[in-house]
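Note to self: user wants both folds in one dump. Writing first protein now.
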Amino acid sequence: MGLTRPQFHRWLALSALVFALGAVLSLTYPIEELSRRLSDFYFRLRGPQPTSQQVALLLIDDASISRYGRWPWSRVLLARLVRAASAQGPRALGLDIILSEPQEEAADRDLAEALGSAGNVVLATKIAASPEHSAWAEPLPLFARRAAGVGHVQAVLGPDGICRSVPAREVTLGGPRWALALEVARVARGVVQEVPDPKRLADTAKPTSLDKVSPDFLIIDYHHQITTGQSPPPFLSVSASDLLEGKAGEELRGKAVLVGFAATEMSDRLPTPVSDRLPMPGVEIHANLVDGLLSGRRLQPVGWGVQTLMLLGASLVLTWVVLRWPGIKGLLVLPALLLAAYGAGYVLFAHAQRMVELGPLMCVGVLVAPAAQLENLIVVDRGLTRGLRQLQRALQPATPEMGGSLRAAMRLETPAPSQDLHWKVELLNELQAELGSLYAFDQTLLEAMQEGLAVFTSDGRLVFRNPRWQQFCDRSNWDPGANLDTFVGALGDPKWGDLSKRLSQPGARIESEVQLGGQLLQVRAIRLPSTQPGSGALMVVVTDLTARFERDRARAEALGFVTHELRTPLVSIQGFAEFLLRYPQAAANSDAAATIFRESRRLVAMINTYLDVLRLDSGAQPPRREVLDLTETVNQAERVVQPLAQAAGISVKLGMDSDLPLVRGDPNLIAGALLNLLSNAVKYSPQGSEVSLRVLARPDSVVLEVQNPGPVIPPEELARLFEPFYRRREQEHTAPGWGLGLAFVKRIAEGHGGRVEASSDTGGGTCFRIVLPSTSPASERSSSSLCSLSADPPVER
């Protein structure tokens, strides 16, 4: 059946449990009542049956009561009725009328003679309540001696008050009394003996017709109840008034005729499985039973052995279904199987006259799903307990040092052993919190990585990528969700061919540097470990080395420039010092000394600038915090740059807001940064142009802004202007410099808690701003462009 050995044992154990529960519950009233109701519905499903050819009814109905008066009738009228019925030649005549009370002697003799002349009349007897005690209401001896038989009319009512069977016999002081239906069937078969033998009553054509009569009860195979205008009726019925007045035909000939009450006012009615609003008359109940006995169509319950096997089979099949399909499919198959079992029971009922108790089977069908789920919960609980116990042992320190570090890292406390669920819940909560924090940490770490990271399955599908991978793919102009083969093909490096085979073992890795789209990339791939051989995922990490390469190149060029710049003043100093040594009395000595002094100052200035940048980067030179006189600082920087501007033919325009807020900082560093921006503006401005210096007040800051009409700087280069040693390629051979000035400005601004901004366009040239926080109450910092040069936001570094 496709089950492993553990699953097979689990199936047998669960089937045994369900079978035991079904067997025990089948003894309870709700399940018994369910079985009765399900069996009762079979009679309605079967529909109308052909009119019986074995039994007919002679009814004392409402028309008869209206014509001959209320019951009891005189014995003379009953004698006329018996003679009229006997004249039609019935095979047996059963009177479902108790004749236990005497009337006039002449009338009783007349009825006795009618019974005797008929020769095939069966009288009724039953238990009747008397003032003193319960006693049998026997027919008068006068009548009993002339009758062909006497049968009881006791009915068995179920717990729900419905008649489904009658006792086969009742024990009295005078001997056992067989049921009226059995006596009528005996007389109709022509068996003449005092006590009917069911085996002797069997039809020779149907040897099994009466040989399986239950010694205790006769189950009634009900036709549908007789209703007005019903076609075909279950039994031919004749009104007693019609028979007495000669209006009836030959409907009673050759049939077993039952005489009884059908009038509405008579209380001889019982509820049956086919009754609607009006219960069925007792005579019609006997007619159903007699018809079954004579036709050999009698219902029998299946034996307890067969019932037990059916219950066991249902337990095995239904349990296998819920274990084979534990989801919605199994829940849909279960009702289908139960409906099929109900249909099979109907087939047995309609064609084999066997009654199956379906209540236990339905009970098993209802119990099997919860039992399977309960068993699943037990298995899960055992597995969870076993796993948590292993986790407890794993968290217990093997050594003090290891345990201390592990406990500190995991922040878990091993709960004391317990048999309840609290320790499991507490441990799971601890683990959930820890895993949540680890997940958040890993997610933040992956998002903050400077490298692009992607994970591919063993068949090359992308299952994870971080934001840097997305950016890398956007710059490379290819789909970020592409598979591994597409990525390897884009690299164009034969070293990466057949990657899955080369990284077949967990922990295997490959690494190389490739050129892709003008970028220098370092690509690494590693096979991640897995619980199944050959199913590990591949992790690919891409690092962009372009910026590092450019920075190293810029540093090398800057170092060469610094070396050249340091060598130039040193050569001058060395040359003029040698001149002074050789010609100490020469007239040009004063000029040589001045040159040596000027070049040494230039050398010291270059070295100090370089050292200042290094100190600010390392934090070894924290800026001073004192109230600045911005007006004096700005004016001093403007005065210092004026000679340089005049020599270049450039004018410097100063603009300053009134009522500037207070600013704390190092006045020398602020002045140096401002002087650097002004000197750069003069250096890169065309002759005859104007450089503007403005000081602008904002609610929570002061902006020092330098604008010049020099060449436009592309946006991709604006962001790198403040990197150490970076110089634009267009300026490397047109203007001397180290590439440290703007880096120096950026460090100073950030050291004072501020920032630097730069923007450039064709309409307004290039604008640099130093934004310094003020000591006044802060409000929302304005981030709009102060130069109004471009719609693009300024670049902040």
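First done. Writing the second protein, which came from a different request thread.
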Amino acid sequence: MNFDWLLIHLSSSIGFILALALLTHIIKERRSPTSTLAWLMAIIFIPYLGVPLYLILGGRKMISKAETKPKLSLDKSKSCCESYISKAYLFEPGDGVFPASAHNHITLLPEGEQAFQTILDLIENARHSVYVATFILGKDETGSAIVNALAKKASKGLEICLILDALGSVRISKKFLLPLLEAGGRAAFFMPMIHWPFRGRANLRNHRKMIICDNQTAIIGGMNIASEYMGPKESVVRWQDLSLLVQGPVIDHITDIFKSDWKFASKATLGSYSTTGKTEKPGSNGVTQLVASGPDVPNDSFRNAILTAIFRANRRIWVVTPYFVPDELMLEALCIAVRRGIDVSIITPKKSNHRLTDLVREGYLTRVQEVGAGIWFYEPRMLHAKAILVDDTVAILGSANMDMRSLLLNYEIALCLFDSDVIRQLETWIQELMADCSFRKKRQRSSFGFIEGVGRLFAPLL
């Protein structure tokens, strides 16, 4: 009995000290006020749940761990693209923001069947290496086909490396990857869920999608390698998504990111790769700038790039996103843009695959709609594409959603495109999306708004 009494009081004391230390740590962290308040409330009012959740999920930046990774471009040298586009439109190179490059060729891949066949063709024609990173690898027809194609090339002596996020691909076992591993390919899981001691890393997921062949051609964007996103046959239930086929000098920067992630996940270093043979495509400037963000970048580079583009906008800001749960700064920037007379339009699915996120987003959508933004609900199916179009100046496409997880937590990758041809193609594609959308009616304030308000309070934890 005395031992039980001592254990209870000792546990309470340790819990109090730990909670106090966590509260101090949270207040000192560079977080949004909403995120800080949400974690403070969770730890103060439900400490037996809040404390362990924060230990597992609460980390946002891993600067000490990031220092073990190759730097994601600290080059602030003069851009080589000023003869093609005004320097005022480009983003300042720095942590996570790579210098702009010209003569890149970008092809939109808006259909899952097209993207799937393009990937298979690239793998089949690869001569030296294939690097693949994905958040989700489906344990289905699509995933099996890609794994088998990679295994076939590995058996011929090519360097095949596959990075899977440990949470997104939690259903993938070594048995599923056995054809690839037995053929000589390598695979690594990014940020395993179980750590000791728990240091907040389970919440920091690698959401980047990259397929790089021979350091000559790459595919990036929103599509994971699973049947919901792509496959050999057309499907009425397949999600509407968007990826990019990329050729040109920017491939070197994409490969830099993959090499950094591979070293972190596998503890192995990839060899040097050829930088020759980049094909320059005549007829357009092909100016492109790569942005990587996440715990391995000191600043929130992707969010900062979007904010910069929003404040530079003169005519329009069109946002395509599966989830709309921005942080307060991003939300206010969009509202200010509307008040400046900018056409702000948000295109999002009428019903996403996350019902809770749909509930929470309503308050954010109402906020921007009240000042004059247009809200469009995509009707036919789930919309998973991520794209931002600002004026006729820049298109931002990649893996990141317009939500706090992508803006502040996940490892993400995006291309900022300054090519007028690609911008016109994206404009046409978004207009086609809008043709299948319904316009959101302005909502009356009701008691349901209280639930949305509570949801917004805990939105940073989603």
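Dump finished. Worth passing along: The chain has three domains: 2-60, 101-285, 301-461.
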